[in-house]
Design brief:
This protein is an alpha/beta fold. The chain folds into two domains: about 190 residues, FAD/NAD(P)-binding domain; about 110 residues, FAD/NAD(P)-binding domain. It is about 25% helix and about 30% strand. Strands 1, 2, 3, 4, 5, 6 and 19 form a seven-stranded mixed β-sheet that branches. Strand 9, helix 5 and strand 10 form a beta-alpha-beta unit. The longest helix has 28 residues. It is elongated, with a radius of gyration of 22 Å. The relative contact order is 0.17.
């Protein structure tokens, strides 16, 4: 990337790449800290298919779209700029900051970055599953368990943790069937736990879902036959972090059974000087409340670093910024 920034380049103290819960939270703190801040949002939140958010204190049941709209209105009140778009490239600018290229051809300069670009659930390749995602095909009992309690649950076994999800959701329903799908035999201890929880086990692959009158009614097996179910839990075998910006900047990644995620400290700081990350780009379990917290910490830490960097420069007689 050409890091030469001409007079048309927009310069900010902080750019937040991603405008979901984590990004808006970071932007809110930065705006309240009197930092000239831009949020660049590609508009691809992970929870977009969900009709409501649950478990978010004081916002329980609010739609994700309404939540984000409220967040954008709040940051605007503190002078934070928001623009729809995608950062396609990022590089150090040679002066301690960063040059960003946007998909529309614009360029942006930032002294510091917060990357909150989230992840993509790469769902099991089962006929009809993706179309029901976020409706009656679910992934998190804490997010959805109350709403579907006591219904007939199905669970697609995750290759890395085949029994875990079925054991978790068994607290919300006593009618749970675990579909091993592509998983072979279970470890003896896990089989014993499933038996103790009253979870039935169906061996063999799942061919597809049965949907009637726009609702899930069953799970169709490849060997033939259908198991009646009204709710299906299906964690993605792989979670693909939207980490292109972080990779271009040389951020350290860690391998997990679910995919690779950027390594951060307790404030969200990456190994790349001047770059923080928060939300699902840092891990698979960053629900809205966790993402908001992570964004807050990153924004506060970023402000503190800029403050003391400028004071150190001023004390040493160097240019600030």
């Amino acid at each position: 990337m050409d890091t030469h920034l001409d007079n048309s380049t927009h310069a900010y103290e902080a750019v937040v790449v991603g405008g979901g819960a984590a990004g808006l939270s970071a932007a809110l703190i930065l705006g309240r800290s009197l930092r000239r801040t831009l949020v660049v949002d590609a508009g691809k939140p992970r929870n977009a298919p969900a009709a409501h958010m649950q478990g978010v204190l004081s916002r329980d049941g609010m739609s994700p779209a309404d939540f984000l709209a409220a967040g954008r209105a709040e940051i605007a009140g503190y002078g934070v700029e928001w623009r729809a778009g995608e950062v396609t490239d990022a590089a150090p600018d040679g002066r301690g900051g960063f040059a960003l290229a946007l998909a529309d051809g614009d360029t942006v300069a930032a002294r510091r970055l917060v990357v909150t670009t989230g992840l993509v659930d790469e769902l099991p390749a089962i006929d009809g599953l993706a179309e029901r995602w976020g409706r009656d095909v679910l992934h998190c009992p804490f997010c959805h368990g109350w709403e579907v309690r006591d219904q007939a649950f199905g669970v697609i076994a995750h290759p890395a943790m085949p029994a875990h999800q079925a054991l978790m959701v068994s607290h919300w329903s006593k009618d749970v069937t675990l579909f091993l799908h592509t998983v072979g035999e279970l470890p003896e201890h896990e089989a014993a736990l499933l038996d103790a929880a009253g979870v039935r086990v169906e061996r063999g692959e799942v061919a597809g879902l049965v949907v009637e009158d726009d609702r899930l009614t069953g799970v169709r097996l490849a060997r033939g036959g259908t198991v009646a179910r009204s709710v299906l839990f299906a964690g993605a075998p792989r979670l693909a972090a939207r980490d292109g910006v972080l990779r271009r900047l040389g951020a350290e990644l860690r391998a997990t059974p679910f995919g690779e995620f950027v390594v951060v400290d307790e404030t969200g700081r990456t190994n790349v000087p001047g770059v923080w990350a928060a939300g699902n780009v840092t891990g698979p379990t960053e629900q809205v409340v966790n993402a908001v917290s992570g964004g807050y910490r990153a924004g506060a830490a970023l402000h503190g670093e800029l403050l003391f960097a400028d004071l150190e420069a001023k004390a040493a007689g160097r240019p600030v910024g």
